[in-house]
Amino acid sequence: MAPPAVAPAEETAVSSSAADVKPSYGGTTITALPGDPILPEGDGENAPRGSLSSAEAEAAAVAAGLSHLESRGKHWYSYLLTWDFWIIIAIGQTLALCITATNTFTSFLVSVNTNIPAFQTLLNYALMTLIWLPVTLYRHGPRRWARVVWKDGWRYLILSFFDVEGNYFTVLAYNYTNILSAQLINFWAIVCVVVLSFLLLGVRYRLLQLGGILLCCGGMGVLLASDHLTGANGGQGRDMLKGDLFALAGATFYGFANVYEEWFVSKRPVYEVLSFLGVFGVCINGVQWAIFDRRSFEGATWNGQVAGWLVGYMACLCLFYSLAPLVLRMGSAAVFGVNLLTGNFWGVIIGTRVFGLSVHWMYPIAFVLILCGQVVYFVTGSVLGDSKKPWLGEDQRDGVAGIGTAKRKALAEAKKKGLVPAASGEA
């Protein structure tokens, strides 16, 4: 089911006697032909491929770079000392803040009787299309873009369907059940991610990783318990059973969407994935809004303040979608899910400043537990963490050398340590 590989450029016939040979770490011998582009140029997302020998040299460079990087991870805390770990934590908290901000803007809209969740999400997909589709057309060109649509369009359609329905059913659930119940069921999204990654992507979790996930969930449980004790769980919903079923459906769709997007961004350029997610998201969400949610406009309030809140909502959600692929590449769908658990904590911080709420003493404990769970998840892991994806092959041959990927890190390490000879004409 992997997307088709990018068509290789014209091969160049060069005698094998002209090859430069240089030994590398781990007994790997790297052969490079003069003039072959060993390492991808630019951002690595859409680098042109050279001859067959160049492709083989690149694969050898990746293998050597991976071997060298993994040899450095000999201590249980090795990954915790890398920039990647702290970048994941920072981006993860930014994503949680983005989700909290979108919830805050939605609360503002609802307070003035403007309850248009489907339309809000439609605007986000439209903004993503406006930003990322021109980038994709520029990088691919119209003909190659059309080939991607023909060959991989159905895959992107499925990804967009999962994402749209996850958003729709989760928002719908809050209309029927209470906040506590909906958030408890959202744990199911992490369960789905772990099970799907294990069954479909070949991910094998260590006991400490599972323990880290459980610790994060325990922290979230403390948050929800404090909400229940203080009566901040939203009270009795209109139809608890219906709302819980909607929340369960939304969490399931989110689980599928996160795993499928991790698979996509590890094989394809990020701008391509986001552009198609936007295009198909507009189509699916637009039809859904036109059928089910048109009446929400009838009693809505429309003024400059509402317009400002909608712009803020779109900006935060678009930033969320644009940063998410980095966590999925550098970490995984599971890491992505546990990072979002801190969203409730940030929601309370905003609530104290904006809505005059009070912070319960259990909230700081819950936040520390969630962060500790993220640390435990990466204990005894290699310096590559979850960026080395098992479904891409041992040398990550089937992956793209994009920002945050293990392949890109390996190529950079191979070049930095002199594990590969520089190609002719390179500085």
From TrEMBL:
Subcellular location: Membrane
Annotated TM spans: 76-102, 122-141, 153-174, 180-200, 207-225, 245-261, 273-291, 306-328, 335-355, 361-379
Biased composition (Low complexity): 7-19
Principal location: membrane
Alphabetical keyword list: Membrane, Transmembrane, Transmembrane helix, Transport
Membrane topology: Multi-pass membrane protein
Region (Disordered): 1-51
One family name in Pfam for this protein: SLC35F
Family as reported in the entry's similarity comment: Belongs to the SLC35F solute transporter family.
Protein name: Uncharacterized protein
Organism for this UniProt entry: Remersonia thermophila
